[in-house]
Amino acid sequence: MANLVIVESPSKANTIKSYLGSNYKVIASKGHIRDLPKSTFGVDIDNNFEPHYINVRGKGDVIKLLKKEAKTANKIFLATDPDREGEAISWHLANQLGIPLDRQCRVAFNEITKTAVKEAIKHPVAIDESLVNSQQARRILDRIVGYKLSPFLWKHVKSGLSAGRVQSVATRIISEREEEIRSFKPKEYWLIKADLITERGEEIKTKFYGTSEKEMKLNTEADALLVENAVKNSPFAIKSIKKTQRNKNPLPPFITSTLQQEASRRLGFPTQKIMKIAQELYEGINLGSEYGGVQGLITYMRTDSLRVSTVAQDAARALISELYGEDYFPHTPKQYKTKNNAQDAHEAIRPSNVNIIPKNIKKSLTNDQYKLYKLIWERFMASQMSAAVFNTVSVDFESAGYIFKANGNALKFKGYLAIYDTVDLQSAEDNDDLVITAIPALVPSDKVTLDSFDKSQHFTEAPPRYNEATLIKFLEENGIGRPSTYAPIITTIISRNYVKHEGKSLVPTPIGDITTKIMKEQFPEIVDYKFTAYMEDKFDMVAKGSAELLDVLNEFYDKFKVSLEQAESKTAEEEIEIPPEESDYLCEKCGSKMVYKNGRFGRFLACPNYPECKNTKAIGKNGAPIEKKEDEEQLAGFKCELCGGDMVIRSGRFGSFYACKNYPTCKFTKQKVSKIGVACPKCGADIVAKHGKKKTLFYSCERYPDCDFSSWDIPLDEKCPQCNSILFYRKSRKTVLCLEKDCGYKREESIKENNEE
């Protein structure tokens, strides 16, 4: 009997199967097999928050297969992902398969390599119930918030809205930043630049600093003119020259949040895409026989630990020495300090095998996989390398008691910059202190003269909108959410129309603003940053076994219940109006800015002056109106039966139809049909094709309703060889058949359909 290994994803199953051989059967559960029900609350609050788990819809065949294989298996190994969610999936699997929780059946891989997989199989452990309880605490608490708050929003704001413990906080962050931008008042300031020339004709660019005692801010043109008038009539002299050597240390290897931030910044990938590609790299890519087939290329990608194994460090140092020499790695391997609240179960994100160099496997990866793997590989290798060394020089020039500064940076030793793209050195916005600039060699006695003087007016700018990367940074810095939740949080608030993308920026919708306002007024604790972070710490304590599941749930619910009751009594039956979302498109009938609205068939543009102006426009995926030109309408070739105007072909929810061109003055329409060249079996008239619901074709007699023949199957111009009735083609089964009750003739055949429009 074979051993059974259960993993989450089919691709991961294929990779592990290739490592373990014929004595192991590897099956994927395809994620959770049990969860709280979608249609009901599923939590018995009065019975110690007892969750009611049910089998996930569509997982019946998977569960049946797992039970069948488990009955005959020699040993069962639960190898779901190595995090709390994975531990919970293993716990549900054990429950369904009748595996005792104290049985040592749980294996986890930080990296999917042959060595790591085989080693884990040798040392299974029992399911960690503390990790499971932590996941359950989050799941139950989020269900309570969602199911108790959502009806409140339906009642007072809009049906279909939902509230979430962390998604509401994320929406608040974006909404409050937008409010900052709206209320921002720019302030004037002035900058002064002076270009100096040495006696040798060398140019030196300087910036105004202030006086030798303090830095000065120039708030008005008068301030700038005061400096200009003073220095234009006064010589410049070198006041001081400072030369130093500066080390710039490499950044640590990636954790989930920094990977998402850097991949978003450098590669332009959205967070959901980043995690999808990282999952593919973790689960394994077929690299061909040269690399032993399928290989997991990176370690587990949901982590907030900066720990790196000594084996990985040694391998990196050996490769660095081979590629660049021993000067490029420090004598003592670098250690990076993990934050206090981090979960240290996994290493930082790194290549599983540093010797698999990105450029050597590019042909085996998709373009996106290559870009992300290259970024991870370079960041990890750089993190183990020596610091970059810069020669810096700072020169102060004095004129009329004012100080002008010139700074120069020159790269002396590349260090980690030899491997981790030096693009940062050219970006003053990101690394002003590292921009490579050169100034001529100077001594205190050198004479300089003013060549040009430039003063310019500027205004302070509003804080920038959040993008996905900067939002994740804020969430991480404030302890809101955990590595596995960052991408789902962003996906959720966008999919539920609380937030939308404008370019790369995240902007709140009117619904997002209104919901945030209500949540801050009625449920301040739910959307409080510190409280949300506090609950994350509580989940961590449950995971470590230092807090009890019920204590955490009771503590939260006691306060939440009071807030909910107070909110209901305050708001009563008040209806809160959501302001319409304004567009940039003008109504061509009255000149007003059109607004976005939702209808039965999705979003559309409408004039805000309804009902005085009833102009509407269909929109495309980008929100822009779809303009229809008069000459694009196809004439039907006959006249309207009511007004004699031209009939045209138009499209509707059930497909094409004929309509009077004088609509809306004349509202005559006629269903569009097409003859298929087959006679009706009941009366001999022509059978025509028509559109039913969801644009599905059906067939009926052209004399309907006088003749009631109709069929979803396609009538054929062919007689049944058994009873001489007409035959039909059933598209779903690719079968030609006779529909006469006592006949039963049929044959398998694929027929090309020419009558669908």
Describe the protein's architecture and organization:
The protein is α+β, with helices and mostly antiparallel strands. 31% of the residues lie in helices and 24% in strands. Helix 5 packs parallel to helix 16. The longest helix has 28 residues, at 129-156. The protein starts with a strand and ends in a 9-residue tail after the last strand.
Task: Describe this protein with a few key phrases.
alpha+beta, six-stranded antiparallel barrel, 757 residues, four-stranded antiparallel beta sheet, globular
Q: Report the count of strand segments.
A: 33
Computed CA radius of gyration, to the nearest angstrom: 35 Å
Largest sheet features: 6 strands, antiparallel, barrel
Q: Enumerate the strands of the largest sheet in spatial order, edge to edge or round the barrel.
A: 8-9-14-13-10-15
Which parts are unreliable, with pLDDT below 50 for 5 consecutive residues or more?
Answer: 423-432
Number of helices: 16
